Amino acid sequence: MKDRPVRSATRSLPSLILLSVLALPTAIAHGQYYFDEQPINYRRATESNPVARLEEKLRAGEVHLRADERGSHLASVLELLDVPLSSQTLVFSKTSLQQGRISPKTPRAVYFNDECYVAWVQDGLIEIGVMDDRLGAVFYSIRDGSRNATLSRDRGGCVACHSTNRTQKVPGFLVRSVYTGADGHPRDFGTTSDHRSPFSGRWGGWYVT
After folding, report:
1. Of all residues in the chain, what percent carry a pLDDT higher than 90?
2. Is residue 98 part of a domain?
3. Within-domain flag for 18
4. How many domains would you assign to the chain?
5. What is the Cα–Cα distance from 178 to 209, expressed in whole angstroms?
6. Residue 99 Cα to chain centre, angstroms
7. SS (H, E, C) 18-30
8. Is 22 inside a domain boundary?
9. For the whole model, what pTM was predicted?
């Protein structure tokens, strides 16, 4: 009789651990990052950046997103944000929001200037990242090819990957170099590439000429 409570508690311990582990994603998904609090209020604060200003002009009808002959708004977005077409880079590793659409045959095109990044995936979203005066990196998307294409600000999904130890736990940008399989899936966690990285290990998962 004395042993029964001990065995019961022991048996319940793995269940408690399992429940705690299963609850982690929910807690993270519905929890808040410290930069969601005062004074930053990341997800609730008004933005101050070139994309936010473009959004205001679009709403006021001062400018318009125009589709090209294929129905894509990419060229219009690049023009309105003054991002040069010649800045194009191509990444085929499945390391982004739209990984299901990315492969060595259908790489993700990334364009950039000093203020923002624009990423395009075939038949997917146009993703835009920009440095904000107060908030750090802020993310937007456009459903490319839609008849009434509009800018939508991301309210927290992107920072799951863009506010880690790789970005010092604040919203930011990074370039990853990963070893991939033939389909573009990463075989390891890879490294963060910056100006200190040797060229021999800087561009895993990228097309470089």
Report:
1. 35
2. yes
3. no
4. 1
5. 18
6. 11
7. HHHHHHHHHHHHH
8. no
9. 0.75
